[in-house]
Amino acid sequence: MGFLAGWVNGFLTARTKLPSFIVTLGSMTYIRGAAYVISGGLPTILTSEQFKFFGSGKFLTIPTPIYIMLGVYLVIFIMLKYTMFGRHIYAIGGNEEAARLTGIKVERTLINVYAISGLCAGLAGVVLAGRLISGQPNAGNMAELDAIASVVLGGTSLAGGTGRIQMTIIGVLILGVIRNGLTLLNVSFFWQTVITGVVIVLAVLLDRLRSDK
Is 109 helix (H, G, I), strand (E, B) or coil? Predict the structure, then answer.
């Protein structure tokens, strides 16, 4: 379902030229609404031990989500660094029109990128449900802000064409350390949300200053 949702977003963005921000914001809203409709606003308790293993299990004392995260990062790293598809992604991010003139199938590449993003989001949902041992229709609210902050903190340019998956890991760790530190300092969740928003703005500002040089 995540893959399908991402494919639809990619199709709407690439073929109809709608702004990607509007398309993804709209899909986030209607998919979240569909979750409430399907569940009736109530959590669904998981009974499958195999499903729970994805979020709460351990292998060699290491939590399963760690293996899943490293596996996804490794696949994406290889794809971006060593495949033609990865080079096409960077080229489109740098200059879409120039990429089109060089013969890159821009629309197909964009649709595939959105589909992969949706697939990863769906996998993250499975892991989260396994950790909560239930399907929560309101789970993941505001997680999109954490995703944006982590990527930008890792040095990926919002203007496109610049960024490395290994640096995104560092961005995730930085945000995680900030969150854990604030929790240990007994900072309320509300203030943590404020601080996360400030971090995003500062990260985007640094990205803009770096791009202007």
Answer: helix
* Whole-angstrom distance, CA of residue 189 vs CA of residue 142: 12
At residue 206, the 3 state secondary structure works out as helix
- Does the reported pTM lie above 0.85? no
Q: Other CB atoms closer than 10 Å to residue 4's CB: what's the count?
A: 12
176/3 Cα distance (integer angstroms): 27
Q: How far is CA 37 from CA 47, 92, 205, in A?
A: 22, 37, 39
- Residue in 116, 91, 90 with CA at minimum distance from that of residue 103: 91
Report strand pairing: 62-63 vs 44-45.
unpaired
**pLDDT (0 to 100) of residue 10:** 92
E-only strand ranges, 23-172: 44-45, 58-59, 62-63, 134-135
